[in-house]
Amino acid sequence: MTKSQCGRIHEVFGLPEWVIPLALFLLGTLVAFAINVLTQNHHIRTRVALPVFVLSVVLAAVLTVVQVVNKPSRPTLDGPPSGWRVVTQQSFEEQDGPATEDLHDGCTNSIGAYSEKRLLLRLDSCRDYTYQVAFETVTRRTDDSFYIAANVQYLSGPSDGYCALLIGWQDNEHYYAFKLGRDTFEVTRDKGGLPHQGIDGIRSDPAIRSGASNRIAILSDGDITRLAINQVVVSEPHGLDAKAGQLRLGVQATTRSDLVTCAFDDIELRTP
After folding, report:
1. What is the pLDDT of residue 177?
2. pLDDT of 201-241, one tens digit each?
3. Which residues, in sequence order, are CB contacts of 8 under 8 Å at separation 6+?
4. pLDDT value of residue 233
């Protein structure tokens, strides 16, 4: 069975590729066990059952190696192009206590605070709401390129909550968002109201370290836009007019009224 055939099986049944070697191993084990149970002949056991088991182990191992060797490498984003200048490098080593003004109304409560050398943003809302914090309010020309990166961790909240880098922010309802959840990411555009326009729909990715801090980055260089998680490019959306506007941090609660908590640190912004 070739790698391409394994890929087609994976696509048809929606299963991870490691399922195929595992299935071969389990099938060989089951057949060998059945032979041992159904026959008392020692020669059959040693000449049939054992070779079947060994063959299944060898096939599973070989197929696993082939998959690993032939697995296509993914593009990476190690940082901005050489020579780009630092506009902002912001960590929170010395800060402590409140970071933003708390927001409290009948439906939404949001808090920003420094804790354990990170900026924590908390949001509890009974509606679809994005809590936004400006850390760099330079409005750039439409032809400016930029690179922004930050360490982001989704600490708590429901499966449909997100931490986000907001780019091209014009006002409260006009921006693009690169959103990282518990174990998924999404790219959306807010064009003036709900629902947000999905640019790259909700999906998981092996690059995401669930339950840990993730380095997320956006490179906008000319007509090229690359979005990366832990240096692995996960999306290359086209047609993003995001160079004019502000860069902001965001926390989003969508359909569930649960506390969403996000941690941000080591924010970096560079331009040509």
Report:
1. 87
2. 888 888 899 889 999 999 988 778 899 999 999 988 877 76
3. none
4. 93
The more confidently predicted of residues 150 and 246 is 150
Of 241, 249, 45, the C-alpha closest to 164 is: 249
Which token pair is 96? 């402590």
Inter-residue contact 202 to 196 (CB < 8 Å): no
H or E, element range at 64: helix 50-70
Please compute Rg for the chain using Cα positions. 25
CA 112 vs CA 43, 72, 100, 122, 123: distances in Å: 73, 41, 5, 6, 9
Closest CA to 171 of 104, 101, 244, 108: 244
Structural element, H or E, at residue 247: strand 246-253
Query: What backbone phi and psi angles, to 5 degrees, belong to 155?
Result: -80, -40
Mean per-residue pLDDT, 57-66 = 75
> Is the Cβ–Cβ distance between 35 and 28 less than 8 Å?
no
Is the confidence at residue 153, as pLDDT, over 90? yes
What DSSP string describes 78-121? -SSPTTPEEEEEE--SS--EE-S--EE-SSEEEEEEEETTEEEE
Q: Per-residue confidence at 161, pLDDT binned at 50, 70, 90?
A: confident
> How many Å apart are CA 19 and CA 25, to the nearest integer?
10
Per the CB < 8 A criterion, the answer to whether 146 and 270 are in contact is yes
Amino acid at 148: I
Residue 178 has, within 13 A of its CA and on its CB side, a CA count of 28
The span from the CA of 152 to the CA of 154, in Å, is: 7
Closest CA to 226 of 126, 166, 160, 146: 146
- Residue 217 neighbours by CB distance under 10 Å: 22
- Residue 76 DSSP class: B
Residue length, the chain?
272
